From TrEMBL:
GO cellular component, one term: outer membrane-bounded periplasmic space
Gene Ontology biological process terms in this record: thiamine transport
Keywords from the named record: Periplasm, Signal
Single GO term (MF): thiamine pyrophosphate binding
Gene source species: Rhizobium esperanzae
Highest taxon listed in the record's lineage: Bacteria
Entry protein name: Putative spermidine/putrescine transport system substrate-binding protein
Signal peptide per UniProt: 1-21
InterPro entries linked to this entry: SBP
UniProt xrefs under PANTHER family: ABC TRANSPORTER SUBSTRATE-BINDING PROTEIN, THIAMINE-BINDING PERIPLASMIC PROTEIN-RELATED
Amino acid sequence: MKKALIASAALAALCPLGAAAAERTLTISVYAFAQDDFKTLVYDPFEAKCGCKLVVETGNSVERLAKMEANKANPVVDLAAVSMADALAASRAGLIDKVDTAKLADFAKLYDVAKDPNGDGMSVGYTFYATSIAYRSDKMKIDSWTDLLKPEYVGHVAFPNVTTNQGPPALYMLGLALGKDTPDLKGPIEALGEKKDEIVTFYEKSSQLVQLMQQEEIWAAPIGRFSWAGFTKLDVPVAWATPKEGQTGGMNVLVLTKGSKNQDLALQFMDFWLSTDIQTKLAEKLIDSPANSEVKLSEAAANNLTYGEETAKSLKLIPSAVALDNRAGWLKTWNEKVGQ
């Protein structure tokens, strides 16, 4: 009997945290993108490490933020992955808490642009992407964003609709190039409006662009780097532009729900996601561009992602407050000048 008690005590001493955590559940809210890979690379390993249960909710940003708002008094989500602008919207609505970065062992490894994307301490970036111009290098040369509107090129251009993720960033860079850099984006929208009958299409899904370029219906289009891989498989020469005005892009961030009873566990999961090991695995699968500066990638992965300190520093991102405060105005001007 005494030996049995000693054995039980020894076992308890070996795994007190695991036993306690086994009763805990962490609920996360994420994009539906690549969830099979996330389960294999992130979710299952974290569950094995923490001895807890991970519940994953997916959906678009509007639906997921609405659910957080509806459950504000009694949160059902502990951590969410959202865009920079959505993180600021959640902060303004009192839905999220400050991130205690002192509890993130991997925080110091992040590129500076990802450490506090909105400057309010309420989010941490886990991936970002560049937006530039994919173009037929045998047909044209891109030195500036304004080259898209040149008479000899404009009839072979696809431009993102203002309602897409790529629309406002591309307009922002076009405005910079035109010397019309105002938050209302009126300058670049008006410039597009003047050429609207010549532009091939104002696209809503980047997936349609690869076929259009293969068929030589278009020679150029602003795209996010996450769409680049499809272009590299074409049997025509396609290049990624590095315009003199620079590249723009976007960033996704992690936030902690205000009032969550599992914030310590959520911080552990956040740190796990930001770790060099996990960020490397996600990047090599071409799922996310790494925000962790210590990630070293194969040449194949690096060429298909937004990668490296120089690139991270060069991105000209639209400030979240500008995006939130001007979205309605952008759409109104677009409808007036370009059409629906």
